[in-house]
Amino acid sequence: MAFVSFLNYWAASMVLVLLLAARSAGGDTSGQASQEVATGDNSGAFLQVLLIGALVAAVCVVVLVARRTLGAARSTVTALGSGVTEGARDVRLGNLADELAIATGIKPVKVAVLDDPVPNALSVGAGSRMTIVVTSGLLDQFTRDELEAVLAVEMCAIRRLDVALRTAVSVCANGAIKIHDDTKYQPTQSNDRVEQAWTRMNWCLATVVLLPIRLLSWPSWRAALRLRQIAYSHGDMGADDMAIAIIRNPDALGSALTKVLKDPGTVRAVTAVNAPLWLEPLPEPTTDRQAALARHSMDASLEDRIARLQHTARPI
Prior knowledge:
Layout: H1 2-26, H2 31-39, H3 43-70, H4 72-79, E1 84-86, H5 91-104, E2 110-114, E3 121-126, E4 129-135, H6 136-141, H7 144-159, H8 162-182, H9 193-232, H10 238-247, H11 250-262, H12 289-296, H13 302-310
Parallel strand pairs: 2-4
Antiparallel strand pairs: 1-2, 3-4
Helix pairs in contact: 1-3, 3-8, 5-7, 7-10, 7-11, 8-9, 11-13
């Protein structure tokens, strides 16, 4: 996980700082160093070593984030499970992906199909390592024009670097979020009194054991959520505008987004970790949709996008 790897790099950097500081304080036998030791003034050397250590840590973090961002496409698709079939499984998907890549001016993008009846789509990656995943439900329920509209939006998001931003933010934030969420005990529901008693006892034991971990992970969890919110606050509908300029059919995009919004199901593979990468990002049904979108999505809501498209005149 990204957060654990970050901690490992940070700890290694701090060890390096301490070693260099110890060597600087005790290994310099020159007259100037002896004078500094005699007067007790080693602050200058220590600050220099601290600065070097901070720069090393920063470089390590940047390299780590870049490496995991470039590898995010493969790891994300793998995490979706065995229901993913890489490559276009039907002619429409393959042809449209190739045509739209040329129209948007990007390199060919890998496409994959996730076996799930709920219509949705995901884009992930950075640089030349981009992947678009669509569900089998989207392929089955959408017309060619609607499928073209969805793919066009995803391709334009790739061209605008929106997808790269989402991927990088997910790499930076998801480790801390997953650690905190995984330490939350989820009791099973039962009508049996004996099982209910065992559940309550297990909940008490789990709370005692996991509470210290949750307390330690809480600051990084809050920082990760804040990082998401800062990045997501800059989301706009530029990919929609660019897609409409290419396909010249706002009605098809509006119809596609409406079908995604009105479908009552949720893609099984959508989790709190990969939610920001999906067209419909909510990992589970909720009564407070706006609050959930503020946490999981960096794009405008489907409702706002549909309302805007309804006021977009069809090009002549």
